[in-house]
Specification:
By secondary structure, the protein is mainly beta. The chain has 2 domains: 139 residues, Jelly Rolls; 132 residues, Jelly Rolls (Sandwich). It is built from 2 helices and 24 strands. Strand 19 and strand 20 form a beta hairpin. The longest helix has 8 residues.
Length: 275
């Protein structure tokens, strides 16, 4: 097996507004996260958030330590959220093994040690620093807190499922869930918002190979866009909006880290105020 780690440094908004398309994609879009028999991680300097993919492809692959953290194990001072976006698989850590169906989420607390991915799962990894140990927990789709929002009239009717969230379980700073668009709706996260106290990452998946999401980013008065394909992720700094419209159905996994775990802590920007 192979573990590959890429580092992404933080970008100031004044720098971002001068970037061309290639530079925006280089700094804020993550491609190729999922490869057979590999673990691929992106280590960001936004709240030291890490995102990545693990595809065991029927074997066992293990994430133990990476040079970027300079710790004995990856989870020595971190917590982790794992989402299975593929077929059934399992994850082993902290002396336990959890069977995960498609859509299930696993929380691993600080100090959980090496993490082994097995089976035919396709595992999306998120991680951020933690300040204390908390119990590991498997949150199934049935365990999630479900919320319906949006409307057909505004083309943004969607279902939000909250997994690593104060209404479901306790974490240090990681907040995670995913949103699925209803048939006929294309827009996510409208009205747009920013939250200066937290960064966020979106992983788009469940898309047809030819489909794309037009992801909006940037400061509200200096918006930019990225065309995003299936199983690609967008890193959203605290100063950036994060909204999008897709061709066909899609789901996006949202994960945040920062000063608080208040999902409602958002500074909304109405469409008429975007530029």
């Amino acid at each position: 097996m192979t573990t590959h780690v890429e580092t992404r440094h933080a970008i100031h908004p004044d720098h971002a507004k001068r970037m061309d398309t290639a530079e925006l994609r280089q700094h804020f879009l993550t491609e190729g996260l999922f490869a057979d028999a590999e673990i691929r991680l992106v280590y960001t300097h936004y709240d030291r958030f890490v995102l990545g993919g693990a595809v065991p492809n029927g074997a066992d692959i293990t994430l133990d330590k990476i040079a970027e953290t300079k710790t004995a194990t990856f989870l020595e001072r971190r917590e982790m959220g794992i989402v299975n976006i593929g077929e059934a698989g399992s994850v082993t850590a902290a002396g336990q093994t959890w069977e995960m169906k498609k859509g299930d989420v696993l929380y691993l607390g600080m100090g959980s040690g090496a993490v082994t991915f097995s089976g035919n799962g396709r595992f999306y990894i998120t991680s951020c620093p933690a300040h204390r140990e908390l119990p590991c927990r498997l949150i199934t789709v049935e365990d999630a807190k479900e919320m319906k929002t949006g409307a057909v009239e505004t083309s943004n009717k969607r279902t939000i499922r909250q997994f690593i969230h104060p209404l479901v379980m306790e974490s240090c700073q990681l907040v995670l869930g995913y949103t699925t668009l209803e048939d006929g709706s294309v827009w996510n996260t409208i009205p747009s918002h920013v939250h200066d106290r937290r960064m966020e990452a979106y992983l788009y998946h469940g898309m047809a190979p030819e489909a794309r999401v037009l992801h909006l980013m940037g400061e509200p008065q200096e918006t930019r866009h990225l065309f995003v394909a299936n199983e690609q992720a967008v890193i959203s700094p605290s100063w950036s909006i994060h909204s999008g419209a897709g061709i066909g159905g899609y789901t996006f996994i949202w994960a945040m880290a920062g000063d608080n775990v208040d999902y409602t802590d958002m500074d909304f920007v109405q469409p008429g105020d975007l530029r």
